[in-house]
Amino acid sequence: MFSDKEEFKQAFSQKLEAELSKTVKTATEVDAYRALGSLLREKIGKKWLATDQRYVQNKEKQVYYFSMEFLIGRLLGNNLLNMKMLGIVSEGLQDLGFDLNRVEEEESDAGLGNGGLGRLAACFLDSLASLGLAGHGYGIRYKYGMFDQQFIDGNQVELPDLWLSREFVWEIRRPEEAVEVRFRGHVSSSEDEEGGLHFDHHDYEQVQAIPYDVPVIGYNNETINTLRLWSVEANMDDTIRKAAKQEEFGNFLHHKRSLEEISEFLYPDDSHEEGKRLRLKQEYFLVSAGVQSAVRTFEQLGLPWTAFLEKVALHINDTHPAMVIPELMRILMDDKQMGWEEAWEITTASVSYTNHTTLSEALESWPVDMVRSLLPRIFMIIEEINERFCQSLWEQYPGEFDRIAELAIIADGQVKMAHLSIVGSHSINGVAKLHTEILKKREMKIFHDTFPDRFNNKTNGITHRRWLMHANNPLADLITDTIGEHWIDDPGRLTDLLAYQDDREVLERIQTIKQQNKEAFASWVYATKGITLDPQSIFDVHIKRLHGYKRQLLNALHIMHLYNRIKMDPSLDMTPRTFIFGAKAAQSYHYAKKIIKLINTIADVVNNDPVVSGKLKVVFLENYSVSLAERIIPAADVSEQISTASKEASGTGNMKLMMNGAVTLGTMDGANVEIHELVGSDNIYTFGLSSEEVLEYYRSGGYSAKQIYETDDIVRQTVDQLIHYSPFSKGDTEFQEIYDSLVHHNDEFFVLKDFRAYVAAQQQIDFDYRDKQVWNRKCLINIAHAGKFSSDRTIQEYASDIWRIGPGNMVK
Ligand code: 26V
């Protein structure tokens, strides 16, 4: 790359002059970002091409990871890290008067995702490339990503995310790789001489899918994979011809606009399936463009179709891209003249599916009429899949009407995407052990009984390169100083740190780094929000999407309770606490928005009351995003993972925080169960109902929130403050809805039931934190076990068990 700093400085100055007509003296930070981007693209180009050529030459099996979301965040720092250029570039820039951190901030934070599912996809790409595996992402290049969040009067306000208004230096538009995607129209069939049926799609609307390729750079190796983001463009010839026929130019513009909507914005609701036509269009757009492109790449190998399943794996990230199944069937049968059986065998052997949620309101189903009119040929194929599937069930379970009706893909006028995904793929996985068990034993039991071999678990992971090496470089350096650098390539070896759990010096160094991170974070908060934080206090962090089941409300009620206690006894013996929140609520999720308002109100009361000021602070940071997470996580002491047990499929924030030495306060839910298993009860604070208990309450209806409210004075006092005159309600009805959800609607998420146990766990933390040696040891033990949660481990499992690809192409 660059042999030394001087070489880099020279190349950088030349870039500034040649491309931006600026000198080092006149260049701004934006100029520096653009020049650096351009310089790196040049360095990347050849390797990227070579990776592609290597894959073709070796005829390597390619994995295509289809996802409606890739929450990639900023790429500059990470790309420099993976290219092993971070040191040279940051020092070189410093010599020239630039601060790399400031230059990094000039890049938009690419928020092409909602939360966990989208960020997981981004971590997976990093691991695939870093392990030298041939895996690529297919997604949508949304013009507007996840909305920007602002608080006005404590309420969330959404602003459009114009991420492309700043230059995104990493993408390359590739019009020569465009494909066409067809909607609507009619399908006719005809018979050939041998009696074979042929289908012809006509009168359709056609759009162009234009790929924008983003390089995915492996860590310190020779691999650069591709994230291919598709953008829609109206097919001008087609559109003009149609408009001319109708002799209406107004129609032409209208029509063009309506087509271009497809890649306009990311749906910002990850909790409620709405059945919106535009969303269905987006899903098919991604699927059709991606499958056509994958098929085209396969055909360039010149192999027979029977080799497809050995050379291509199509993975669907949740059910959103489930139409990969009928789309591949369509291409194989209609374009490649294959018979049903052969096409079906190839399709099911190539497709695999990950389930990310058991929340029934988030499960996708589409009205039959909508699918039929928008995608007539795809609908026919889904119908046929359904018929053949029901037929085979009939043979296996004759007379069992109920079972067949429950398993059917099409029922009650709806197409059930989870059913389609299970029937049309060879592997279905959950994202943590507990989640997979719940799928197998409850949510998908009947499918598990039918296809037991298809179900498997792949516990989620996160990339330790972004979340430890880049976000918390001092900690990464300390680890390397202590155990050597092998953990970087083999994060499981972080367990070598366990040998130092009683080493005073190592423990003190961990504490010093945490303290410095907390100070850096506190200065940033002061500079941006004007709030002073005490870096000696416990930094208690709750960062994730705002959802009822994630129970930010439980945390909020606890803060109200603490506030009340201090007000009653201002000399209360407690360790000072800073509660830090970050969360976006879906625009239409009214209840979640009320909880945001409540937390902001609590912050306002607490932060302006001198009686509690030395003990309590509450900060709700606006616009939680990947880059904000990178700031908060290294400074966290406590990691709040307090979902209602059984509801959080895995969680991945829990892993990021643990890897940075925060101690989890959590329910036995999702991957918390596996964190507990690894670190042991002394190094995690668990509380509350178990998933079995929760599920049993739901089944029996035996829970009474009202009873707790009536019998527990502390619960009642705190909950009443939501509506009675109090510092928080100020006598108006702002929080009536929250009160009602707890007291009158039987507290769906068991907040009141778990309240006492949560308070007790928090008290234990307050106590344990006082002995720094004891606390630091917990931090070390958490860091040491976090290697299990590197996405490298997760991807190795997907590679060997699901995709059947090996590290044969590992080039170091
Ligand atoms: C659902 C929907 C449904 C309505 C349309 C838009 C939309 C967008 C996304 C989703 C999926 C939500 C599922 C999800 O993000 N699950 C999270 O996945 C994480 C990665 O596996 C996991 O750690 C979290 O526990 C899980 O909630």
Automatic annotation (TrEMBL):
What Gene3D superfamilies does this protein's entry cite? Glycogen Phosphorylase B
Q: Which GO terms describe its cellular component?
A: cytoplasm
Q: Which reaction does it catalyse?
A: [(1->4)-alpha-D-glucosyl](n) + phosphate = [(1->4)-alpha-D-glucosyl](n-1) + alpha-D-glucose 1-phosphate
User: What InterPro entries does the record tag this protein with?
Assistant: Glycg_phsphrylas, Glyco_trans_35, Pyridoxal_P_attach_site
Q: Which residues carry this modification: N6-(pyridoxal phosphate)lysine?
A: 656
Q: Name one GO biological process term.
A: glycogen catabolic process
Enumerate the cofactors the protein uses.
pyridoxal 5'-phosphate
Protein name (database record): Alpha-1,4 glucan phosphorylase
Its transmembrane ranges are none
Q: Which domain of life is it from?
A: Bacteria
